[in-house]
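Q: What would this chain look like folded?
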Amino acid sequence: MKFLNLDLNVNKIPSLDNSFIPLCVFNDTFLQTAKKPFIVAIERNSGLVSRYETFIHGTNEMFETDCYYVERLVKFLIWAKGGFKVFLCGDENVANEIKTIYSYLGLRTFDVKFMEKVFERKFEIVSNTIDECPSEKETSKSIGRHLDGYRIGFDAGGSDRKVSAVVNGESIYSEETIWFPKVNEDPKYHYQGIVESLKNAAAKMPRVDAIGISSAGIYIDNRTMVASLFLKVPEDQFDSKVKDIYIRAAKEIGDIPVEVVNDGDVTALAGAMDLNDTNVLGIAMGTSEAAGFVDSHGNITGWLNELAFAPIDSQTGAIEDEWSGDIGCGVKYFSQDAIIKLAPKAGITLNESLSPAEKLKHIQTLLIKKHPCAIKIYESIGVYLGYTIKLYSSFYDIKHIILLGRVMSGEGGDIIAKNAKVVLVSEYPMLSKKIEIHLPDEKSRRVGQSFAAASLPLIKAK
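A: My prediction, written as structure tokens:
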């Protein structure tokens, strides 16, 4: 197929999405003829800088194609790494075009304002020469793997909340509770739900020494900076009722250590603990796509890893993410939204009165009955994933991929993983030998994050 002056060859087409253009295929084809050096560097908190070296064409004929490549690259990097200042080094004309797109009046206003809220700094794009490009400055820190004492692990998802009571590394109690945090405006609803789960777990132990919390969103010093769980909470209540919601909830249990970490990083931590290895990318497919990464030192990196907003599909008719307004982003391919999106294409009619979680459960019930249309849905997501693993490998040094979350539950998870492996083996055989895809046991797929979350806080010796 022809796209932006490039002839793209997509060999494995999802049966329910024949217009799918994997961004990795576009990127690989683009780079075959791009020879002009170009660097994207992104500064975030504490003067840390992530740097990505690549190439563009730098000609008038390929200007539009160059701009598309760089714009998608910037989009991916700011959500994977995070930052408020983007240095585009190597071509002033391309940099100026991207600067227009990432402005209050441009297409990526959402991204600009989001990064400003997270880092509490003005977002800007700077054009530099290659020689002026900032050097990379990265760091990582050890977290979790503490299993001594009486602990509570809590995992807050968009469709359900999970809690585990863990005693000296053994889970003695786990529960899942359906809730609807994304559609509730009153933060009391969220607070009461969190406290109820914590108290249920606390009641199973003689005491509680620490509480670890895995939650969708971005957290700094245990405070909520941005989180889709509280999407409907009015802005004027966010600072007073949401920023410290987990700190206040933990105090209902006692004055004990508490640690709040993004659910994606906890997914990766759960995988690293289970495998006893490093270089683990964790992907949890639930209400959204959560991701996290444990590096070669066994540490988390401090990157955002918000891959739900990172682009993976180049087709012009890709489905739009309602929150960001962008198209072709991970959330619509690796969450319950993907199941709901593909159902009509598979010939399955879903009752619109059902909640998204209930729609997912309906498809899962059909899958248990070996419904061929339901099978096609999961096969298509598997093809999405295979190509996207190739894309992710350009930004993360991956040895293991751990797949968790409600979408991965049951036979559907096996189908997704199998079809992803088929894509890797046939299209990227060398990569397929380097990266292992792991599906934990059924219980771990659903509540593994709450168990790993329990290990987050360090209990200081008295």
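The longest helix spans residues 372-392.
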